[in-house]
Specification:
The chain is mostly beta strands. 0% of the residues lie in helices and 50% in strands.
Length: 82
């Protein structure tokens, strides 16, 4: 887009696994990435100890639509949202 690797768009905050998260989208990539976008799952509370995963994939029947699957683990509890 604008070739500014420091610019990002942040989603609204959402809750998974009892923690607040957002998504950071870098349309021009992040760091030394060239010709790519970068997407990060961001924990909004500093110092929290959480294991998280995020999987982005196109829908099989509609490849122009993407699905985000999030998971978060705090202590022994697994939480998944689809």
């Amino acid at each position: 887009m604008g070739h500014d690797k420091d610019k990002f768009v942040r989603s609204g905050t959402f809750s998974i696994g009892g923690h607040s998260w957002s998504i950071r989208f870098y349309p021009d990539g992040y760091g030394k990435e060239n010709g790519h976008i970068s997407v990060y799952l961001e924990l909004m509370k500093e110092g929290a100890k959480v294991r998280a995963s995020c999987d982005l994939r196109p829908e099989p029947d509609q490849p122009e639509h993407w699905v985000a699957i999030f998971g978060a683990q705090d202590r022994a509890e697994d939480v998944q949202l689809q």
